[in-house]
## 1
Amino acid sequence: MVVQGGEVECAHEKCQPIGECPVVETPTEGSCCPKCLTCLYLGVVRHNDDRWISSQDSCTQIACKGGVITSWRIQCVSECEGGRRMAGYCCRLCAQPINTEDPCTQCEPVLEHWYHCYRVACPVLDCPISEHHTLPNKCCAECKTYRSASAIVKGTNDMPKGYCSFRGGKFRVEEAFRTDPCTRCICQQGGVFCRRFACPYTQCDASRSFYRENVCCSFCHVKARRCRLLSSNATLTYVQHGHKWRTNECTECICDNGQITCEKEQCRWKGKCPRGRRLKKVDGSCCHECELREGTCTVFGDPHYITFDRLGYSFQGSCSYVLAQECALRGDMPEFVIIAHNGGRYFAAWTRRISVLVSLHNGSFFGIHLLPNKVVRERGRTISLPYIRIEDWPEYRVAEDPRKGHVVLSLNVIGVKVIWDGESFAEVVLSKKHQSKVCGLCGNFNGNPEDDLWPQYGSSVSTSIDEFAQSWRHGTKCNSGSAKESNQK
């Protein structure tokens, strides 16, 4: 406001641009324009982005950035041939500037004929690391936004000498802290003072440069040597470090810094595969692979279940349950259904018999029943073992295994086999063609045990074994003396 000739003239104060300033000084009463926080160094006020050389050491450079003072020791880039020393300059002066793409390397002209080349460090910024951004061809980062603050805040009950506000934290006067492995700071009465180490200049490609945890400067991998390779026709060639090749199906070699090392591949399967798989040679491969041939689900005890995908759990249900069936759409008739009929007394349950139902494709099933004491029935009549049915559908054979004494029912046409010991042990064996096409208490045979507990008509895997098993209950009638149902995964 200006008074001229008895008249009052008002105008908006024109504020100077604050530029790239991380911290704006909290405005005082009567102040309009924002100002970047200054620094107080040895009694002298320094403005934002000021840089100067220490009066006590020509190799120490100091900068003011948003109220934070940062000092570092200059790292000379090169001791050039024919260079000269000059008072007031840290590094030897060179006749030509250093040709480098490093934006942190500066070559300042001196007396028009010489260049002072050195690598600088960057001022510490009073903003979170996430707010840092570096423009193309610039050495140092800037803050994306700025905040309002004072260099030093007056004392409080818990901090009587006052404190420094830095990156959202509070630091007592004379309290030291680190911002990164290269920088150590301290809160003083004039604000935050930081000492930063400037890493020396290296002629290391970015592809060979690497860092170690809690270490300030990068390291450089030594340039690796090539390997000499003599081919079968006596031709000498060179291969690069890290290059790999095979001398045969089982031996792989690698060039390691001028040295060739070869290793023979170790095969996982050595002549024997787990049950349900068979050994197969793969073209171009050193080792045989164990190819899936069939899947086995086991029921035993009171009772325990091991699915086709090897998930084990217990369920003491005393009703009838579907062990495995073709997973047809709702309303469609599956090609086969294998049912376990459980019985129980007091607090125990076990599998008492097994039924195998095969679709006749006319809306009905053909039933084969494996009963206690190894009795086998077909459509209500007991059959003598061994027995073969080959004239009508379904074709099957049933016999007693002379080695283990188990009854083995084989339906080779549909790829199903059931083994029964006549008491409580049963195995359901399915050929590979049923993989990912079955469901029931024995799981879905897809190689993943994590999704075996899928309820009938469910939309996701169940977390309750009881809920899962009850969904596969077959029929409504249960055996007398039902056992207490429990589960254990």
Note: Residues 480-489 have pLDDT under 50 and may be disordered.
## 2
Amino acid sequence: MASCSPDIKLTYFDMTGIAETIRLAFYIADVSFVDERIAFADWPKLKPSTPFGGLPIMVMDGKTYAQSRPLLRYAGKRTGIHPDDPLAALEIEMIVDGLYDIFVAMGTVRQDKDPQSKVQRQMEFKEKIFPHMMSSIDDLVGKTNPNYCIGESLTIADLMLYNVLDFFQKGVVDFMPKDCTKPYANSSKIHDHVVKHGKVAQWRQKHS
């Protein structure tokens, strides 16, 4: 059922990245929101007005909220895909934060301005950091049901896992091969299951 209040505007760059999971959570549940996507060239002008100097930000009823993981937890609670039970939520957030750490580590490498150290850091990420992080995630997910990270139904962890794997599979990270996620069978199965979700398929078609 569509939700009509409060009015929501989610602002991020015109790409997938860390805001995509929030977008998907709202879209799957038919929660109406403004999907504002800004160009990188416009970011310096907007940055000083953001709470922590970063994106995404979300405006509801005139108030601005920030930090991607709290925004995702809110979206999950709002849409019923993040549980109220503290222990169940802890398990899910452990997966979400582990996946978020992959984004952070990758972003740190991409932002390195020194050509020599950047090459070294790219190699370290490719050969050590990414395999270690993804192996840890892969060992934790799909224990109860192979189609979901935790439990028997879709959660924000599944959307986050889908988003991270899709990011690499699309070749957005130029120093990583598109098949770098293939060795992680449990995670790949969950990714493929999320792709088949009707609303996710619609979203992918709209934003391909």
Note: The radius of gyration is 17 Å.
